[in-house]
Amino acid sequence: MSYKAIHIICDQDLEETISFLLQKSGYDGTSYEKGRLIAYCKAENYKEDETLALLANFGLSPEQIADVVNENWNSMWEENFKEAIIGEHIQARAPFHPSSGYKHDIIITPKMAFGTGHHETTRLSGIALEQLDCKDKAVLDMGCGSGLLAILASQKGARRVLAIDYDTNCTDNTHENIQLNKAKNVEVQQADSVKHLTEKFDIIVSNIVKNINLRLLPEFVAKLNSGGHLILCGFLDQDFDEQQTAASAHGLTLVGKHIDNNWLQTEYILA
Question: Which domains, ranges and CATH numbers included, belong to the chain?
Answer without folding.
Answer: 2-79 (3.30.70.100), 83-270 (3.40.50.150)
